[in-house]
Amino acid sequence: xxxxxxxxxxxxxxxxxxxxxxxxxxxxxxxxxxxxxxxxxxxxxxxxxxxxxxxxxxxxxxxxxxxxxxxxxxxxxxxxxxxxxxxxxxxxxxxxxxxxxxxxxxxxxxxxxxxxxxxxxxxxxxxxxxxxxxxxxxxxxxxxxxxxxxxxxxxxxxxxxxxxxxxxxxxxxxxxxxxxxxxxxxxxxxxxxxxxxxxxxxxxxxxxxxxxxxxxxxxxxxxxxxxxxxxxxxxxxxxxxxxxxxxxxxxxxxxxxxxxxxxxxxxxxxxxxxxxxxxxxxxxxxxxxxxxxxxxxxxxxxxxxxxxxxxxxxxxxxxxxxxxxxxxxxxxxxxxxxxxxxxxxxxxxxxxxxxxxxxxxxxxxxxxxxxxxxxxxxxxxxxxxxxxxxxxxxxxxxxxxxxxxxxxxxxxxxxxxxxxxxxxxxxxxxxxxxxxxxxxxxxxxxxxxxxxxxxxxxxxxxxxxxxxxxxxxx
Amino acid sequence: xxxxxxxxxxxxxxxxxxxxxxxxxxxxxxxxxxxxxxxxxxxxxxxxxxxxxxxxxxxxxxxxxxxxxxxxxxxxxxxxxxxxxxxxxxxxxxxxxxxxxxxxxxxxxxxxxxxxxxxxxxxxxxxxxxxxxxxxxxxxxxxxxxxxxxxxxxxxxxxxxxxxxxxxxxxxxxxxxxxxxxxxxxxxxxxxxxxxxxxxxxxxxxxxxxxxxxxxxxxxxxxxxxxxxxxxxxxxxxxxxxxxxxxxxxxxxxxxxxxxxxxxxxxxxxxxxxxxxxxxxxxxxxxxxxxxxxxxxxxxxxxxxxxxxxxxxxxxxxxxxxxxxxxxxxxxxxxxxxxxxxxxxxxxxxxxxxxxxxxxxxxxxxxxxxxxxxxxxxxxxxxxxxxxxxxxxxxxxxxxxxxxxxxxxxxxxxxxxxxxxxxxxxxxxxxxxxxxxxxxxxxxxxxxxxxxxxxxxxxxxxxxxxxxxxxxxx
Lengths: 474, 474
Hints:
Hexapep_loop (chains A, B), 10 helices, Transferase hexapeptide repeat containing protein (chains A, B), homodimer, transferase (chains A, B)
């Protein structure tokens, strides 16, 4: 395993040289977070479809358990059980606009991951970086368990576990555990743990910070990379359900009887009594149990949905967990949100409501969220909603708002519109409105006929754990 | 499937342009032999080990169900459930001798398959072609079911089902069903069905032709590529046993408890009560049932061994079938031989005996083959051995011999020595004499830690059935 060890040293050096000035040393994390032998145990899989450019190249890397789709390059990196989903990359000829200036892409955008360590990380969407719109770059980056790198260029960035960087550009930043950042162009910033920060320059800014002592109950990473807390406890319960799935070569759909236009990844778990509606999408590594997923609804990577009902058009963003919940039409549950009802204390979410990214609703009594609400922060009782939710129409009329730990500044209408627009866009991208025409095809339809190349590393000798250099497609 | 169809047309044209003057038209064979949809159903697998150069490139091809190891290139070809085993290729710096002239290899030898269709074909060993010793070339070639291309350059060659071309160079040749040819440099020759022909220029020549009507009972290919006869009937009985093996991702050894130094491919079937001895090798696609495989013995691709005992040091060449047989030490069973005893009519083979390639022993009474014999041809009763076997010491003293349908001309000692040398070499190559030292390591030891990249074709659209271009390794 000499080469794998040298690779870890290399990544450590590249990240530390950028982040030591920010007070971060990733050496122990990289040494201990994942036992070395696991990097030999799991295969990587690259999806083939007719609808996405087949272009994949990796060199000097370990890709254990990682899923990849679309145009991707990986060099001198360790990707552990991560998802690199290039199905929303920009295409050659697309025109993009930055600050009012338009420019045309001269080739298909590529996700390029260099000198980085990603652990159970989701990489999706496309880059918002005007420097090179053709490259979604992840460079000298360490992303810990269940972090999301969503449409964000990261150069010299540390992401704590369950953190999300969304539609941004980040250079030498530290993102704390369970922080969510969607704040444009950031350089040399440290984001504290449990902060939810949404900012559109000159338009609006939303800020929330979890009360002291809360985030640690749900996410805690010690200096050796050992993760604890209620999130990982919850997820680990269902680990075994994935074992048979990963040990089978998927030559055809595992899950029959889905409705027309829907797609259930063969790498998803559907357990107990479930129904999956028309045009619904269940991504790989989603876990659905005793639930009804209505028409056009979706569950992205690392979503766990149990004993719940989705009436239709629901979005569960990457890492969203929804348990013992009844969710009305078009409800949105943001990244890594934890909507945790129990048998006795069910959660009901009214239609058109938005559960903001990184929201924890951990019910100790039944909770009902009115329709057309935005909810954020830490909610355990009905009364908590008073300071942690707002009616969206009210917000759209407001400018500056302070509610509990949250502040909102700027144009409420712009904020609400942006969210609404985004949800609509997500549904479109996922194929929720598919009517048989080419224009309405989305991920659910485009991945119907996906099959998977399964890639393994050397098992012994100095190369053990390294994947042989490989190029697929053009 | 337009591209796959065009690929078949391309191969047809390239082969026909060479072979039509020889009276061969492969159009209907290629059109009908394998239903098109099967080319989408089966995955290809490429083995990774520390001991073989990782260098694999394919373009514009279908590789359904094909296994590959070592340095291989495939272009504009269809490889259906074939085995391309590059573990005996020559290496950079090796010195080879042709007609007394020595030359040194300037790079690792590569198997290069272009414009060809191989169906359940075994490609193994290394090329004997002085033109470019670095390239084992298979060009404009159609090889039908269970044929063997063993150390033979083929350019514009048709191989009938269950035929073997061994250690030769062939240019525009037609090899009949179940023919075996090891005859140096051949051009524009048609080898009749059921001929066994071993020739070393200026030294010796062995010739045997099956009596009329026999080969057709065992192998028959109609003009549409439909195969019938006792061989395929026998093999098809065991088809289902391979299904679970191919539907599992092999992350570790399936078969535990093998003796030290032995290797059982995870893609082999071990069924019923079997023992596998020290340093034994069971290759992928071998099927072993209720049998004891002694120390250092081996079973190559497409071997079927049932209710049999191997005392040790036994070689079963590619496609050899041994049923209800007791086989003494160091017995050799050649390519595609069918040693078919029954419960009542067992076959016993004495130690050091050689069952020549393409021998059929289909017992209607118990048959005992004395030790140190060579056996060939078509044997159903003990008395048949009178004209179809010879004591090897006697042969070593003989020059010209005619026995039944067989003729032997030339130096008997050279013939016997060549065979003995080859068997010894096969055992060495397979690691039968492994004693823990590097010098004695062979295939059984070198493939211990193999793992497999699993490659799939596009499932829909015009690309359906085509594998995306791929490069693995240097």
